[in-house]
Amino acid sequence: xxxxxxxxxxxxxxxxxxxxxxxxxxxxxxxxxxxxxxxxxxxxxxxxxxxxxxxxxxxxxxxxxxxxxxxxxxxxxxxxxxxxxxxxxxxxxxxxxxxxxxxxxxxxxxxxxxxxxxxxxxxxxxxxxxxxxxxxxxxxxxxxxxxxxxxxxxxxxxxxxxxxxxxxxxxxxxxxxxxxxxxxxxxxxxxxxxxxxxxxxxxxxxxxxxxxxxxxxxxxxxxxxxxxxxxxxxxxxxxxxxxxxxxxxxxxxxxxxxxxxxxxxxxxxxxxxxxxxxxxxxxxxxxxxxxxxxxxxxxxxxxxxxxxxxxxx
Length: 313
Prior knowledge:
disordered N terminus, about 0% strand
């Protein structure tokens, strides 16, 4: 009976400690969200010293982002590694990304691949996708389309839209997997439904050309517009061309020049030639109108989120 009482007491102490830890971490997370960086840093620091992997991870993020303290990649590396060696998949992924970051002066492709692989094996979608990109491009690892497809699929099946989109392109191109337009379209729709502009643009192209499905210029225009309004340069170019040709929409030189000029501003190489050709058919007043319209669209929020270092799930 005495032995049983000791066990129960020990369990109660553990439960109370876990509850206290959870409360502190929740408080720190709320402080971080409200940009009270000093308070968050203080709590994470104390918990990290106790070996709390989540605190080590979050403290590492604060060092990497320069929150509360000056940016310090070395400290971020140290803290990520402490958490990663405890098996924390998010920390493993962040450590891998840190080794890919040339600005950190810690660039080490071999270590990056090592830690991304560990995170990918734990179903971390960003690690799976990033590693897939490396195998696809042959960067830091031998080029292997089959391995890229495997990794893309792992992340895609967890709902990661970038991976769904890339997997669609592998099916479309027939790289690492037999060519299958139906499967490409299926994966692109999954990504497009999540707002993935690249997938929306790809679907627009398929509908405009009638590849793997019935041609539908109106739906192509709708999809191009969705992607174009999110800043996708290829979709902006194609939407402009649809306006110029009057396919799926009434012919409109002003709208055509507007979207093509936006594509050019976003770096689409073919857009400048298209601007020149369309511009030759317009009056100076029409060109000015198109430029004003493009300016309004350019200044309008696109719904895209600025890149930032977040905890990869």
